């Protein structure tokens, strides 16, 4: 009986997996490929370029060694800012609320929120949108004060308390 080449035995459905700290070693990638992995996703929001290059090489080597084609999908992040310290530690923004995002060193409140790295005033545009909390909160940019490094916003979609 003629053996069917391994490539023809692969499922038609593509399996995409994001590789992270627990799944990016050569041995683990080999296991994933043998289990059906078709595309390895690298999230460039995390880790260094050197680390991504190492994982990229692990995927390529596993694919070559196992003689199973594996695609690599690179998720390129957009600009991301992190919020600074705030008091109270948690507050809620509701539609219609106004808030200022600033690159200045401030303790955040429901009226003003410090963000880093500096530059939110350079990356914003009037009537543009800014997303907070992984997109759960949407702000509309009303005004930009480049001298103060402030971006005045109105909450379009917020999170209600409770």
TrEMBL record:
This is pyruvate kinase. Its cofactor is K(+). Belongs to the pyruvate kinase family. The lineage of its organism: Eukaryota, Metazoa, Porifera, Demospongiae, Heteroscleromorpha. The keyword Transferase applies. Pfam families: PK. It is an enzyme of class 2 (transferase). Residues 12-156 form the Pyruvate kinase barrel domain. Gene3D superfamilies: Phosphoenolpyruvate-binding domains (3.20.20.60), PK beta-barrel domain-like (2.40.33.10).
């Amino acid at each position: 009986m003629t053996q069917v080449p391994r490539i023809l035995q692969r499922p038609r459905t593509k399996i995409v997996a994001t590789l992270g700290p627990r799944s990016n070693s050569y041995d683990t990638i080999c296991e994933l490929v043998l289990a059906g992995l078709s595309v390895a996703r690298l999230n460039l929001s995390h880790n260094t370029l050197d680390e991504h290059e190492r994982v990229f090489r692990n995927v390529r080597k596993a694919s070559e060694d196992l003689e199973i084609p594996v695609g690599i999908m690179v998720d390129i992040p957009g600009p991301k800012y992190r919020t600074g310290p705030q008091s109270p530690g948690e507050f809620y923004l509701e539609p219609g609320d106004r808030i200022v995002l600033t690159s200045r060193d401030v303790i955040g409140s429901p009226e003003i929120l410090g963000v880093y790295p500096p530059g939110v005033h350079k990356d914003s545009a009037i009537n543009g949108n800014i997303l907070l909390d992984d997109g759960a909160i949407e702000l509309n940019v009303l005004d930009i004060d480049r001298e103060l490094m402030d971006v005045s916003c109105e909450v379009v979609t917020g999170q209600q308390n409770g």
